[in-house]
Specification:
Blueprint (H helix, E strand, L loop, with lengths): L30 H4 L2 H24 L10 H29 L7 H10 L9 H34 L13 H10 L5 H22 L6 H9 L24 H19 L6 H7 L2 H9 L2 H15 L6 H14 L1
Helix pairs in contact: 2-3, 2-5, 3-5, 3-9, 5-6, 5-7, 5-9, 7-8, 7-9, 10-13, 12-13
């Protein structure tokens, strides 16, 4: 078996009760339930369809409704759905490999397996297909994380206290967000997570654009060697990070956990201008606030900001002024 089949069997990337828990490596007894050959052959198609549905739902959420969630909570919910899909596919993949080791041993046997199940394959290299599935996990986590970063940059541009610096072409969205939110000043532990996320972004680029000859991710991987990720409890059981050809399920777990940690850190450091937020609220929303008593109006505005954005210790001193702005419009 290749390096991609090794895994610690570590837990849920999201540390969330609502997200499916990862199963132990010992899959004895589950083969009859999951080993249908056709499942492995079509699983990537179903995977991409489901992920596309989730992303479309994510993108349709507008600033007004946001499903009554801020961008961080929305990101965590969507990432949780991606994680559940990845976990299911990994289980299916492992069971398939265990049950069909002989069928995957040679090209001829693999073709015969596909033919018996009326499936036409475009790639008869079973090991390449298994490896590609692991890299697809990275692609989808990056897609979700980048959507959050774009949303964060949009909010900083519209509602931030500081002057927004537009993203330049060679910048990643993570670099742009870090520059505008924390002025690229990261503590040492977060710098390691930052570099890890940048590495997996480059893995995604090579996987999607077939740019394996570009050595950007190789250089980034070498930079990661200065960090000891094993000292972190959340990474201690993971066999990661790995190089491009050996990307595994553990890399997905490491990337997902890193994205959540870094997204939380960035979100908690956004400096919102609450006056801009209130002025930009939808007219129907402001019309409802005007109907309330002064006390209820202030409480409603505070709840609105707390739900869709984030409050800090300056809001209490501003809330009466914000309520007056609403009444003056």
């Amino acid at each position: 078996s290749s390096g991609t089949m090794k895994s610690s069997g570590a837990g849920c990337p999201m540390y969330s009760r609502s997200c499916l828990r990862w199963w132990k490596n010992n899959l004895a007894g589950c083969g009859p339930l999951w080993s249908a050959p056709r499942l492995f052959c079509v699983v990537r198609l179903l995977f991409w369809k489901k992920c596309r549905i989730i992303l479309n739902k994510f993108e349709r959420v507008d600033d007004m409704t946001m499903q009554k969630k801020n961008i961080l909570n929305n990101f965590k919910d969507v990432l949780g759905q991606y994680c559940a899909i990845n976990q299911f596919i990994e289980l299916s993949k492992r069971c398939f490999v265990l049950d069909h080791e002989k069928d995957m041993a040679t090209r001829e046997n693999f073709i015969a397996l596909a033919t018996r199940n009326s499936v036409t394959l475009t790639d008869y290299n079973a090991e390449n297909m298994v490896n590609a599935i692991s890299r697809s996990y990275i692609v989808n986590v990056n897609l979700c994380f980048e959507t959050f970063l774009k949303d964060a940059c949009t909010q900083v541009r519209k509602y931030g206290r500081e002057t927004y610096q537009d993203k330049v072409q060679e910048q990643s969205w993570l670099k742009c967000a870090a520059n505008n939110i924390i002025q690229d000043k990261l503590p040492a532990d977060k710098q390691a997570i930052y570099d890890l996320c940048e590495y997996y972004r480059l893995i995604r680029n090579s996987a999607v654009h077939d740019l394996c000859e570009v050595d950007d991710h190789i250089k980034e991987y070498k930079k990661l060697q200065k960090y000891d990720f094993k000292v972190e409890a959340k990474f201690s059981k993971l066999l990661a990070p790995n190089e491009y050809d050996n990307i595994s399920f553990d890399d997905f777990v490491m990337f997902a956990r890193s994205c959540v940690e870094l997204a939380t850190y960035l979100f908690n450091h956004i400096s919102y201008d609450y006056e801009k937020i209130v002025l930009d609220a939808a007219n129907p929303q402001k019309a409802d606030w005007k109907k309330y008593t002064k006390e209820r109006r202030e409480k409603a505005i505070l709840n609105y900001i707390n739900t869709l954005f984030r409050i800090d210790d300056t809001l209490d001193a501003e809330i009466a002024y914000l309520a007056d702005i609403v009444m003056a419009q």
